[in-house]
Amino acid sequence: MTYFRYSEWDGTQDFLDFDKDELMDELARNLMQDGSMSYALWKMQRQGMRDSQGRRLPGLQDLLQRLREQKQSQLDKYKLGSVMDEIREKLKDVLKTEREGIRKKLDEARQKVEAGAEDVDEELGQKLLRKVEDMAARNLEKLDNLPEDIGGQVKELTDYDFMDDEARQKFQELVEMLKQHAMQSYARDLTEKIKDMDSKALANMRHFVEAINQMLEQRMRGEEPDFDKFMEQFGDFFGPNPPKNLDELIERLQQQMSQAQSVLDSMSAEDRDSLDNLLNSMLDEATQYELAKMNANLEALHPSGKLGRRYNFTGEESISYSEALKLMEMLQDMDNLESDLKEAQYSRSLDSIDEEAVKELLGDDAAQDLEQLRNITDILEEAGYIQQKGGRFELTPRGMRKIGQKALRDVFSQLKKDRSGTHNLDRKGLGTERTEETKLYEFGDPFQLHLEKTIMNFIYREQPTLPLKLTPDDFEIYKMEETTR
Questions:
Q1: Relative to the CA of 107, which of 89, 98, 344, 471 has its CA 20 to 30 Å away?
Q2: Can you spell out the DSSP letters for 261-308?
Q3: What is the C-alpha separation between 71 and 315, in angstroms, rounded?
């Protein structure tokens, strides 16, 4: 399922291309506030940033919020109880069609007797009518005494002799759908390849599960199963995306079983019990046994704890069981991505985030945003502003100069305009020239201040904050040399 989200322009919609100086200015701002290189870099990735044109690169917090909103929109949209409503409506239609068919059969039989058909004598006609009336009475009595629960009704109708052909066909279609649902709870990939769940198809499914159990039991005994042989026999069941090995098959089966369990767990207690019992009743004992064995073998090899996750649906839009399974797959993928984004914020590493999952669930723009967040340190490192030592980043001399320059810009941007002549102005006297060498200021020296190094002395001395609180110990001045005439 593909979803599109529209919102007011907020500066995040354009693809941004930050240059090294913009990134360094942002790093400098964070350093001036926090003083920690690792935290300053992480803050840029976590909170995002704006470029010189006001366009915003979303951070991890923005991606996490967007993901949560997307997930909530699905929960607010659908009514999971409609899964059972669909089955109830189909069964209700079967019963209505059968009752109407019975009345129609009775009317036709009575009309034939009353009309006195030439090819049927009166006595035989009366016998046929009584036979139809007796069968109609028995069937109506059975319909009137069907169990209240939907599972019991389906079970009773399985042995029921329908009088109406259309009702019989509708019931067979319902049973086939329920068998599909029952197998989808364990292996959705397979049932999508099988159109008719007849006895032959169910037998093939059972052989498939038996083969899986054989491989799982071999693995538990320490043997290496012949997965290639298994795929030669059952590879067509998987469609265009078959598993590459047994571990991938195990993971896929457990995920699909978890999704089916989430459907049940997210229903009301009444609907959950009804659907669970109904689906189990669709499979023969041999198939149920093999599926139960497969479930136990999977859990023994790869304990997964509680399979399903409960979701609180509050919407009104109807959804089928097949659609609900696909929705659960998406919601669980969202949960996994949310966990990755949270973990990334705690570990301060973006390596654990699946870019393909971001693209699939949040779109191409979000994947581009993630890529740009990952590139921040690469751009700064390639520009020579930071370097990695001992597994952590630190400023290079060039980066320090850049921060000093920014600090100066910030200082001068806060200076207030004043009338000329109301502040002191130091002038260089005759007979001296300024060199490019510097020294710490001492009392009596000409106050030819090297602002950049002065700011850097302050930064080295304590955590930088604005406004800068310089002390005389921070002052660094140009050295002077005497000149002769």
A1: 89
A2: HHHHHTS-HHHHHHHHHHHHHTS-HHHHHHHHHHHHHHHHHS--SS--
A3: 13
